[in-house]
Amino acid sequence: MSRTIPAPFAGIRDVLVGTAVEGEREEASSAIGYGLTLAKAAGAHLTVQSASWRLSGDDAWLGDFDYDGVAVIDRRLDALARSIAERSAGDATQAGVICTTEAPSLPYPDIVSRLAWRARLHDLTVLDIGPRTYDLDREMIEKALFHSGRPVVAVPPGHYAFAARRILVAWDGSAQAARAANDALPFLRAAETVEIVSVGDDAQIHAEVPGAEFAPHLARHGVNVSVNDLPRGESVAATLRAQAGLFRADMIVMGAYRHSPIREYFFGGVTRSFLRGSPAPLFLAH
After folding, report:
1. Are 144 and 120 in contact (CB under 8 A)?
2. Which phi and psi (to 5°) does residue 139 adopt?
3. Cα separation of 125 and 120, whole Å?
4. In the chain, how long is the greatest CA-to-CA distance?
5. What is the pLDDT of residues 196-231, one digit of tens each?
6. pLDDT at 56
7. Domains and CATH numbers, the chain
8. Which residues of the chain have pLDDT under 70?
């Protein structure tokens, strides 16, 4: 009996990339290059939202700042955001990718809200992990995860091109981890090798659904999968980070924020740790 092999990345038909300009110097965005090459590999439509953080308007913290001076900064930021959008459109045309660009000029809260709203209309959102002054990158990631119902790929600096030959699935048996692995199936099926990694002692690893019990589900979907149970070591995040390096992972799939962001802020957490620094792009779902 012949077996139908799914097309690579089937189900990824449109990709949203979100960036935000908050300084007068352009910062390199890994997300734009990554999103463009991902869209090309998937044959998907690409949308680039290059927003600028508008200072004038209802930002009460500006106080007695000179309005004319602020308006000049707003125009510069808007021009920079539009320049990024235009360059992205040009790069997409050269790559043969159909691309739509947007360059809204918005106050701080509206940037992340608009991004989350737009994310609902796309299969996947690609965002930067970057050292922003006001953590705008992380807030965009969190808002998209919690309010769009769609997965997010968070791209660390230096990862300008999409790759998914070797994928590590961080597995703790939770609903969030199951959701992430399910949403990532187009990439898992196309990967050369996938490793499910569980971290903890035996009681922790088997507290919910063990990775060894989840692996057959992925195998039935055509995933070339193996399982690796690891002791906790220094921390779950540190152990996962080290294993991703040893495995030479192109992508790490994980459920995001099993605990609330507030609890993670005060007590630490795997998601927050990886958003401060990851060895590979993160495929996240909540």
Report:
1. no
2. -65, -35
3. 9
4. 75
5. 999 876 555 555 567 888 999 999 999 999 999 998
6. 62
7. 14-155 (3.40.50.620), 166-285 (3.40.50.620)
8. 1-7, 23-26, 56-68, 131-135, 201-209, 258-268
